[in-house]
Amino acid sequence: MIVGYVIGEASPQEALVLAEKPVRVGRYVVLEYDGVKVLGLITSVTRGSPLLDLTINDIKIVQKLKNLDTSIPQFVRADVKLLHEINSGMIPDLPPGPGTPVRFAEEDELRDIFSEGDIVIGSVIGMNIPVKIKVNSLSRHLAILAATGSGKSNTVAVLSQSIASIGGSVVIFDYHGEYYDSDIRPLNTIVPNLNPLHLQPREFATLLEIRPNATIQYRFLRNAFVNYVKEVKEKLKDGNVDYEELNTNFVKHIEDKIDEIASSEKQRQQKDAADEVKNKLEEFVDRFGGTINLTVPDITSRIKPASVNVVDISHMDEEAMDAVVSHYLRRLLDSRKEFRHRGTGLGFPVVAVIEESHVFISKNQDTLTKYYASKIAREGRKFGVSMVIVSQRPKGLDETILSQMTNKIILRMVEPTDKKYVLEASDNLTEDLVEQLSSLGIGEAIIIGNLVRLPAFVKISKFTGKLGGSDPDIKGEWSTFLNPNRIGEEFG
Ligand SMILES: Nc1ncnc2c1ncn2[C@@H]1O[C@H](COP(=O)(O)OP(=O)(O)OP(=O)(O)O)[C@@H](O)[C@H]1O
Ligand SMILES: [Mg+2]
């Protein structure tokens, strides 16, 4: 079906089309010229009339024209971004000539392009053409970005379940508690415990807020902690352990060790440092008490292949969340390295999804997670640890990490500073695509990167089944609060 004809001056990258009638942004078109068949994407559409142009300043003229029997002549213009030659896959090197006909791409032409991947994530907007993404490309990581309520969590659910269905392993850090009791299958829920026996001394010191330059404090903690862990591990080997006692007296045991070490010190300064470490240990228990458990196995032995593993961190405060997410990310990366080098450790690749990433990978704040997330962004690819960062506040994200997320699924985004920030942090995103983000509907997205051969305008599939992210029924909740008997009526 003919959309219109090229007018004005075209380049090998773009052309202006005079269209027969209004067309939707995001539709794919084909231009045939000079023996090549070029696929293009409509990136903007305008509509106007030479009779009612901007020089008109008398409303009566408009009213008179409207009252005439004949309709007002109109034109529709569309900008087309030229993507690639359909047969060769090359980027076009010649511009289309004026008058070149422009037609909608046929389903078969698009079907080939978007069926290269492994799992279906949705369909081309306005067409019945499934869009598959290449799972291997997740090694270059992914950012799922959008304004609130635009369909990020739905995308995570669809993506995760599909990855699990082909044998993959996903770990979702469930900030809002939307996934852990969802209908995603197979689901493996993980209680977000931290086992100090798996912490490195430096990691433990960071959780205690012992600063890197507090060398005396660190030395006390390190010696006490290393001794303690060694003793417990030996006891565990003998099977001679009272688990309850172990958890209850964890801090006391380490404090005893600190006292032991401090007793041989003579200087006041050393004694003060030992006391300070003890204070910090007690504060640590106040903050993370519910999370500490010396009997849980390491995260890497709790996650399952061919499953969506959900770590429900929703009941924790942000500091504790940060501790858990960073520790788990470190263990995932270390364990995959161990597997590569020695054959022990985590035997399968993982995709780690961090919801509300701007909290953990913030532009302005140095969180524990930011350190390991940036390590995974750099090294994860080699060891099979992929990262998916999800955020409704892209401009709050660390720019380097965002720019290392080669793939992006961007749903509706309106805020100009967010759009600008994402554009600057993405090599493969262009201004004309970013312009379109405000006009996307819920669940509609632009996918860029290696996941797809070409930038794709996709309506993401709706996850079928329960997912906690639906908009709350505020009116309904008021009504049930005021008329509690209604519950009885409904269920009675
Ligand atoms: N592809 C889709 N098709 C149909 N409905 C959708 C789609 N994606 C999301 N929705 C609906 O839109 C609403 C918001 O979706 P979702 O919770 O995924 O958004 P979000 O971007 O994660 O929001 P938040 O910023 O609150 O985390 C939900 O009710 C969901 O069912
Ligand atoms: Mg969400």
Automatic annotation (TrEMBL):
Pfam families: DUF87, HAS-barrel, HerA_C
Location of the Helicase HerA barrel domain: 3-69
Alphabetically ordered keywords of this record: ATP-binding, Coiled coil, DNA-binding, Helicase, Hydrolase, Isomerase, Nucleotide-binding
Keyword S-adenosyl-L-methionine tagged: no
InterPro entries: DSB_Repair_Helicase (IPR053460), HerA-like (IPR008571), HerA_barrel_dom (IPR018538), HerA_C (IPR033186), HerA_central (IPR002789), P-loop_NTPase (IPR027417)
Taxonomic superkingdom: Archaea
GO molecular function list: 3'-5' DNA helicase activity; 5'-3' DNA helicase activity; ATP binding; DNA binding; hydrolase activity
Reactions that this protein is recorded to catalyse: ATP + H2O = ADP + phosphate + H(+); Couples ATP hydrolysis with the unwinding of duplex DNA by translocating in the 3'-5' direction
Coiled coil: 229-287
NCBIfam families: HerA_Thermprot (NF040937)
Protein name, entry field: Uncharacterized protein
Record organism: Metallosphaera hakonensis JCM 8857 = DSM 7519
